[in-house]
Structures are given as structure tokens and as C-alpha cells.
Write a structure and sequence with these properties.
- The protein is an alpha+beta fold and 212 residues long.
- The chain has 5 helices and 10 strands.
- The protein folds into 2 domains: 69 residues, Winged helix-like DNA-binding domain superfamily/Winged helix DNA-binding domain (Arc Repressor Mutant, subunit A), CATH 1.10.10.10; 120 residues, Umud Fragment, subunit A (Ribbon), CATH 2.10.109.
- α1 crosses α3 and α2 packs across α3.
Length: 212
């Protein structure tokens, strides 16, 4: 069996190493859920089972803190913790559910590992993939990865991810005395004046262009 980790398994292993370096004890399932922003225990449990099978950790199921690094990783624990401080795994959401981007498995399409300086050290961010050409004037092109800071308020001129009905869109927020609307950065598209309930779900912090 290959011992190569999937992005989600690597995120779990990194979270374990970082927790142990910071607290001098293994994490519980609940602590991993909090660290990884995962809503349900089974979302962590499956990744832990994979790490055991691939020889990255051992577990004592009778103990709440029964996770142990495999012997080959113990000497490198400090170095791994330093690396975990420099990079972070960010979920790519296929959709933004109403009420906020909760990180449950059905909303996550993939994970991307990026330097923490792109996220300004924030761990609660998520990624949306840009679609179409409506924001090319702001340097956002089809297929770009948009790093989003979850928040429900934004300033005039911010580029935001907004949920209109069941549809997510990324546009510039414009606040005027007589109206608030969403503005595309391409003259061939019209401004959006939502005629139904809508909400801001986050602000675009950075744009990453995947290598071709």
C-alpha cells in the first residue's frame, strides 16, 4: 500500500504535529475538529484511520489522547511543527451554504496547501474557484483560486463572495446612499441589484493563479 498522503490526510497529520509541538500532548478528536474547522467527528476519524494504515501514527482507541506519531517521525517533530507554521491547507468549496461556509465534507471539493503569508496567518479561510470573465478588470480570471476570509460585513469597494439565493458570486461591493449593489469588473456585464435575500459570505484576501 502506498504511504503517500492525500491533501486531507496531510492536513490531519500536520494538525496533529502542530498540536503536539504547541501543547506537549496529543490532540483529542474534538480538538482536531476545532483545529481543522470540521463539523463532524467522522470527518476526522476517517483521516486518522488512513494515517494508521499508512504508518504515520498509532492509536490507542481506549484513550482520548491515544494518538502517537510513528517512530520515524518523532525525531523530526520540532522541524515538522516549524514547517506547519509556514504552510497551511485550505479547503476549496464547491458551494457556499446559506448561513456560512461550514466545512462539512459535502461542501469541500479539494484542499490546497499554500504559504501562511498569503492568508496573513488566518486559519479559517476557504477558497473559491473563479468562473468566467466578469472580474478580469480586477485581475481575476477564470480558474483563479480566490482566498476568502469569512465575514458578513464589508467596506465599500471590497471584492466579496456573496450568496444570492442558492447562487454564489464574486463581485465588487458598492455602497451608495440610495443603493447597495454588486459590480462586475468587465463592462460587458451589468451591475447586480439583488431582488431577493442575499448575504455577504466573505472578502477576497488574495488571488492565486494555478500553474498551467
Amino acid at each position: 500500500m502506498s504511504d503517500e498522503l492525500s491533501p486531507r490526510q496531510k492536513q490531519t497529520f500536520d494538525a496533529i504535529q502542530k498540536h503536539m509541538a504547541k501543547n506537549d500532548m496529543p490532540p483529542t478528536i474534538r480538538e482536531l475538529m476545532k483545529d481543522m474547522k470540521i463539523a463532524y467527528p467522522k470527518g476526522v476519524q476517517g483521516h486518522l484511520d488512513a494515517l494508521v494504515k499508512k504508518g504515520y501514527i498509532t492509536r490507542d482507541p481506549r484513550a482520548s489522547r491515544g494518538i502517537r506519531l510513528a517512530s520515524r517521525f518523532r525525531k523530526a517533530k520540532a522541524a515538522a511543527a516549524d514547517l506547519a507554521d509556514q504552510i497551511t491547507s485550505i479547503p476549496v468549496l464547491g458551494r457556499i451554504p446559506a448561513g456560512g461556509p461550514m466545512l462539512v465534507e459535502e461542501n469541500i471539493e479539494d484542499w490546497v496547501t499554500l504559504p501562511t503569508d498569503l492568508t496573513k496567518g488566518k486559519r479559517d479561510v476557504f477558497i473559491l474557484k473563479a468562473q468566467g470573465d466578469s472580474m478580469i478588470g480586477a485581475g481575476i480570471f477564470d480558474g483563479d483560486l480566490l482566498i476568502i476570509q469569512p465575514q458578513q460585513q464589508a467596506e465599500n469597494g471590497d471584492i466579496v463572495a456573496a450568496l444570492i439565493g442558492d447562487d454564489a458570486t464574486v463581485k465588487r461591493l458598492v455602497k451608495r446612499r440610495d443603493a447597495t449593489y454588486l459590480k462586475p469588473e468587465n463592462p460587458k456585464y451589468q451591475n447586480i441589484y439583488p431582488d431577493q435575500d442575499w448575504q455577504i459570505q466573505g472578502k477576497v484576501m488574495a488571488v492565486v493563479r494555478p500553474k498551467v
